[in-house]
Amino acid sequence: MILIVCVDDHNGMMFNHRRQSQDRILRGDILELTEGKILWMDAYSKKQFVEEGMTQIRVEEDFLQKAGEGEFCFAEDADLSGEEERIQEIYLYRWNRDYPADVYFPVDLSGWNCVETKEFAGSSHEKITRERYVR
Description:
The structure is a single chain. Helix content is 13%, strand content 33%. By secondary structure, the protein is of the alpha/beta class. The strands form 2 sheets. A 7-stranded mixed beta sheet has the order 5-4-6-1-7-10-9. Strands 3-2-8 form a 3-stranded antiparallel beta sheet, with no helix packed on it. Strand 9 (113-120) and strand 10 form a beta hairpin. It is globular and about 30 Å long.
């Protein structure tokens, strides 16, 4: 699977059972990245994606287990423990901000290589950084 995650400056993902932030331009970047492919997520994450014509999105609560090789997974509140061996690539979107957090991105990236970096202005963030990691 190819994992997509959004994090703050300290790798925080969630606070008090809610996402730290969201951004319309970032969602568009995810949809463009996954166009023509399968994008798995849970119902909580799907609430962000209200645009029409998003045929790539599949919604299941156990989406991490259902995702096959080469399929994308957008994880916000999913438990990633036990899934690291199945992850082929990681797209890490950085908010470039410090938010309160009580859930953190658990994958140790020291064994991964950052092979691509893209910066763009979001709709609610001055700068969002997308990093692509491979083993």
